Amino acid sequence: MPATLPGVPNGGVSQRGHDHRHDDPRQRLIVALDVSTAAAAQKIVAAVGDSALTYKVGMQLYTAEGPQLVRDLVVSGRRVFLDLKYHDIPNTVGAAVAEAAKLGVSMLTIHSSGSGKMMRAAVAAAKARPELIVLAVTVLTSLDESDLEKIGIRGTVQDTVVRLATIALANGCQGVVASAHEASSLRAELGDAFAIVTPGIRPAGGSVGDQVRVVTPAEAIAAGASHIVVGRPITEATDPAGEARAILGQISRGADPVRAERDARDIEIINRNADQLNAEAEDTLEYQAPWDTDEKEDHRPAKKKSRKR
């Protein structure tokens, strides 16, 4: 990506660390650069302009263009969400996170199923860049309960997400990646002191594509998401900046306390109905995964009582 990429206005990128309550809706929006070339990514960033501050670089683009693309985005003043979903032995993941920190990324992903030891290695490596948020992926939004059952995971998606998130936070991760369908349960169980990044976002009336569990931007924020990831609805729009602004409006709508309480209540009803349909599945899961029987330190935030959102 050429160094001529236009910069964002001064003060556009928040430096508020891990405070996930944002007044500027742009702090909550992450635009996914799901393209194959730096030129295509540059075109999207230029078209979106100052309507977004953070961009996701995933496997496709990073494999095609490598770390220079990330450096160029950072130099231009953008925040980078490096979504490579590291899942390997602890030493390898720790080394990869250390290199990502050197690139100046603001957020990155690891798999929560990679073990507590792997997550601790990632968190330790990320300390070289204090503002770097390590996010643990829980259950991909392309999966449903039948998919989980086929790979040996029994129980509801919601229970699995909460269990994996609990383990991730206990091992120092600052947030998780989860569907908005589980966000309200995560907030009720684990509180507000961590980020929830929600993919599978589609504006009302939009195509769901290859996602199974999708919600609108307003629904995601109302349910408790701190950030939402939006790709094709913005990047393939005739007017990417206009579409981004429309989504920012939906984010603000979801953050409105009155609307948020109503939308969160509706989502809870949907979740309860889904749980009833899966009544024959196991309704409890062990807190610790088999690989985490030797955990020594618990960093989980204090549990909070369920509350209306």
Would you mind describing this structure in some detail?
The chain has helices spanning about 40-50, 60-65, 65-75, 90-105, 115-125, 145-150, 155-170, 180-190, 215-225, 230-235, 240-255, 255-275, and strands spanning about 30, 55-60, 80-85, 105-110, 135, 175, 195-200, 225-230. The longest helix has 21 residues, at about 255-275. Helix 8 runs parallel beside helix 9, helix 9 (about 215-225) packs parallel to helix 11 and helix 9 (about 215-225) packs across helix 12 (about 255-275). Strand 1, helix 1 and strand 2 form a beta-alpha-beta unit. The chain has about 300 residues and is of the alpha/beta class. It has an eight-stranded parallel β-barrel with strand order 1-2-3-4-5-6-7-8, surrounded by seven helices.
Structural class: alpha/beta
- Choose one word for the global shape: globular
At CATH level 3, the topology is TIM Barrel
Which strand order do you get reading across the main beta sheet?
1-2-3-4-5-6-7-8
At the first level of CATH, the class is: Alpha Beta
SSE inventory with pairings:
Blueprint: E1 29-32, H1 38-48, E2 54-58, H2 59-65, H3 67-75, E3 79-86, H4 90-103, E4 107-111, H5 116-126, E5 133-137, H6 145-150, H7 157-170, E6 175-177, H8 180-190, E7 195-198, H9 217-223, E8 227-230, H10 232-235, H11 240-255, H12 257-277
Parallel strand pairs: 1-2, 1-8, 2-3, 3-4, 4-5, 5-6, 6-7, 7-8
Helix pairs in contact: 4-5, 7-8, 8-9, 8-12, 9-11, 9-12
Distinctive features:
42% helix; 8 strands; 8-stranded parallel β-barrel; 309 residues; TIM Barrel
